[in-house]
Amino acid sequence: MNLNVRVSWQQTITTASEAPADGFLLSEGGTHFIGPIKVSIIEGKGRGVLATEAISPGQLLLCVEPLGVVTGPEQTSLSVEQLQFSLLNHSCAPNAINWVLPCAARAMVVRAARHIAPGEELTISYLGGPQLLPLDARREALGSAFGFECGCPRCRAEEELSPGLATLLQDTASRVAQSFSPRLKRGMASGDRQQLMEVRRQAAAMMTMVYQQLRRVQPSLREQLLSSCYSCVEAIADADTALGDDEAAAGSLGKCLKAAAAVTPGSDLHVIVASKLEEVVGRLHGEGSLQQQQAWQACVEAHVARYGQLDQARLRRLAELNRTLTNVGGAGNGGGNAGRGRGGQVGAVLAGAGGVQPGRAGAGRGQAGQQQQPVALGKAVRRWR
Ligand SMILES: [Zn+2]
């Protein structure tokens, strides 16, 4: 399996660059906040963190300062060694999201990204882009970086797939990386509509095969499995967007959103795709239409999962900011490092200090270092085990 697949999500993890927002943090409990959680022994995993009460999406679970900063050859990354944080186990479809506020304290924030039941284990993702790849690629990434084999429900479900479907998921991801993405990038750069349409046709044909195979799979598993070929769905959305076809883009972005929400709720990708979809649907059906209202609701859910409960004005400003970013429309082309250009802007919105400055999005294109953050986290996790 080709681990060099660069789905756009990889370039948009903004954990290390997103937002000084001290005022916002302090209003929620400061940088030494521990929510309704406890450390416990989890069967088959050693220690982990459990919810002690019912938790809602967006609820703050942890806000901790790192104990030290590790300077690597390419960047400075945090080494977060706070006990509670480093005990959070990995899942390929986690229920919590973590990111760093590089305010004075460079605090690490962990929020619930879904409803979590009392006694349920809290999980985050240690993966970057491979989170959106099939089982073999995720195993390879986790094994080489962290030395364990994931046994989360998504991995176990994917283990049970027929060999034909498992191979199809792998082939789809490989084909996007080796063929669709580079051709899409060239087509976008040259404005070659024929090329864009041909790539879209081939990517859609690939997905048709996937959908046919998925009919034999339990409905509850389909969305997670579709997220394992996210890059193909995204390539179609990119082509639709580049071709200026709003109707097709609304459909393909809707599929991207479902896939992102299934396995990366509250992620940067989730909020960006939701914001872009809402914009396209608003343009297509009109502001205030039922479709636009539904798209806005999905957009609010994504933003709450990442940033917590915010007033409508801040949600609007964040959505405006996120829709100007360049992850969808990049098709794994190595660009679109959304976070670099907006860190301070997101922080300003959260802190209530400023508005959105369109046009700065993707200011740091090509700086793909942020996926180092989960690695730093994993090292901390290993030390505690
Ligand atoms: Zn897993």
Automatic annotation (TrEMBL):
Location of the region described as Disordered in the Swiss-Prot/TrEMBL record: 357-385
Gene3D superfamilies named among the record's database cross-references: SET domain
UniProt cross-references to InterPro entries, sorted A to Z: Gramillin-biosynth_MTr, SET_dom, SET_dom_sf
Domain of life assignment: Eukaryota
SET domain ranges (all copies): 35-127
Biased composition (Gly residues): 357-367
Entries under CDD domains matching the protein: SET_SMYD
PROSITE patterns recorded: SET
PANTHER family: TPR DOMAIN PROTEIN (AFU_ORTHOLOGUE AFUA_5G12710)
The protein, known as: SET domain-containing protein
Species annotation: Tetradesmus obliquus
Upper classification of the organism: Eukaryota, Viridiplantae, Chlorophyta, core chlorophytes, Chlorophyceae
